Amino acid sequence: SYNLYQTLVEKKIVGKQGERNSTLTKRLVPFLFNAVSEAVAMDFSEAFYWNHAGIFLDPLDQHMAEAREAWNNCSDNYPSSLHRTEAEFYDYLQSEKHGDQLIILFRICRSLDKTDTDQFPAGIFGLSAKQVKLRLGLNHNTQGRRLLDLIHKRHGLIELVKPGKKRIKGKQGIANTYRWMLI
Predict the structure, then answer these.
(1) CA atoms within 13 A on the CB side of 158
(2) Burial status of residue 120 (CB atoms within 10 A of its CB: 0-12, 13-18, 19 or more)
(3) Residue 6: its pLDDT value, please?
(4) CB 116, CB 124: distance < 8 Å
(5) 99-114 vs 129-136: helix axis angle to the nearest 10?
(6) Grouped pLDDT means (10 residues each) for the chain, 183 residues
(7) Nearest to 154 by CA among 96, 78, 94, 85
(8) Measured between alpha carbons, how far is 165 from 175 in angstroms, rounded to an integer?
(9) Structure-derived torsion over alpha carbons of residues 44, 46, 49, 53, reported in degrees to the nearest 10
């Protein structure tokens, strides 16, 4: 989604001539690894390339190959960044039904929990089913809601701090507010 790209990438990461590779491999992809699925990250990496095509000299295929390599490096190194309990849970989730989606949501929630924003202090984060859908590249909000329910109710990885409000005609909804439970 373009709005998600704007929020996550365009407003935070600027491309500069001569710094394409380091921006891609040291800032953009590592950030996206904790924010979205691999497919969405590759779409955003390509969009980043095209948004800066006038200053980037390397071809798109090289850019994308480097994005995939950076993603693989993040994937390989991520478990070692977790404390023991988190690492065990992360490993366990991979063996669960929908494990590939659950580990992405694990990374997203853990990252959001550590982020201090104007809207939420570190330790509290808002996340809607729609955001899960967009971040994971799913087709329906209900899929996002089911995944949130799995990590909240079944696995206890997040705790509901404050229920959100459903969107009604003419009024934007408010996301549920959560807390990461593996401390």
Answers:
(1) 30
(2) middle
(3) 92
(4) no
(5) 110
(6) 90 89 95 97 97 92 97 97 94 91 96 86 90 94 92 93 86 88 85
(7) 96
(8) 7
(9) -130
